[in-house]
What we know:
- This protein is of the alpha+beta class.
- The chain has one domain (2-159): Nucleoside Triphosphate Pyrophosphohydrolase.
- Helices cover 25% and strands 31% of the residues.
- It contains 4 helices and 9 strands.
- It has helices at residues 17-23, 71-83, 133-139, 147-159; strands at residues 2-5, 11-15, 27-35, 41-46, 57-58, 90-92, 96-99, 104-113, 125-131.
- Strands 3, 6, 7 and 8 form a 4-stranded mixed sheet that branches. It has a 3-stranded antiparallel sheet with strand order 5-4-9. The chain has a two-stranded antiparallel ribbon with strand order 1-2.
- Belongs to the Nudix hydrolase family.
- Its cofactor is Mg(2+).
Amino acid sequence: MVAILDEANQVTGAVPRSVMRRDNLRHSATGVVVLNSAGEIYVHRRTPTKDVYPGRYDFAAGGVVAAGEDPFHAVVRELDEELGISGVELTRLPEDDYADENTRYHAYLYTCVWDGPVRHQPEEVAWGAWMSPAELVAKFDEWSFMPDTLALLGPYVRSLV
């Protein structure tokens, strides 16, 4: 179940994820840019079976906040589920909103530093690699990235170049 939000980010109810996607209902989601101590960013490609933007590249781990779930706990959960990263200090970035014809949500955004191994969740992540901010920015126009990640976190990545 996913909590549905009004424009003031107040919970107005909860629906199954499939209904949220089908009706493009406003909800909460998380995003974490993972850097290593060398300043590289972890970039990955989503599996072709994802329910929104399948097969696209992404440079944030994250996902939908479940009904009744604290957004910070959702960030921790998603980072562990998608990339096998846990026990890291999360640095909060400003919250923001995103909307297009596929998704509408209030975003809780973070960064973290991780130098350990990355373990992909096979249902969600098909490929991944570390890239410098300059390499990643150069790929913005070449690869098909998640439009929400580009809009919400692209300026942050550009600031690192």
